[in-house]
Amino acid sequence: MSVYLEKLRHFRLAIKQHGGIIGAYLNFYRTDELKWGDLIGEDKFGNKYFQNRHYFIGRSRWVQYSDAVGMDYDGSQIPPEWHRWLHYIGDEPPTTAPPVKRSWMVDHKPNLTGTPEQYVPYSTVKPKITAWEPPKA
User: Fold this and answer.
1) Pairing state of beta strands 61-64 and 38-42?
2) CA 123 to CA 89: how far, in whole Å?
3) What distance in Å separates the CA atoms of residue 2 and residue 45, rounded to the nearest whole number?
4) What is the rounded CA–CA span in Å between residue 4 and residue 127?
5) What separation in angstroms does the CA of 27 have from each of 22, 65, 66, 88, 113?
6) pLDDT tens column, 31-40
7) Angstrom distance (rounded) from CA 129 to CA 112
8) Where are the domains of the chain?
9) 24 in helix, strand or coil?
10) If you placed Cys at 36, which of 1, 14, 100, 135 could pair as Cys (CB 3.0 to 4.6 Å)?
11) Strand residue runs (E) in 5-112
């Protein structure tokens, strides 16, 4: 019986952490899982990073993407310092051990492929295939 009570307690913690039933439902809809854990930190894009040592290694650290991106979240929206911690390359998160900022480093930008902000070069080459135009009446 105590196993069921502990599962119920963890479910309640997950609901509480996501801001109630509606927030938990929305998070479950976005990510197909409902987790609970300790908030480790937040990056400049609004992504939140969590850890729960009760989960298996490889599944015990995760990111909750910013609400600003909605369903258009992508792995390239994670900055390199958090990528290091998230993928177990280092044990210390950037909140406790910030990376050394070098003069040659540039700020992180997410991959914009397939978005309206993407740079698309103008082509001067004549296309090999032309579109069909219906006959004019």
Assistant:
1) unpaired
2) 42
3) 41
4) 65
5) 9, 10, 11, 24, 25
6) 888 899 999 9
7) 28
8) 1-34, 37-113
9) helix
10) 14
11) 38-42, 48-51, 61-64
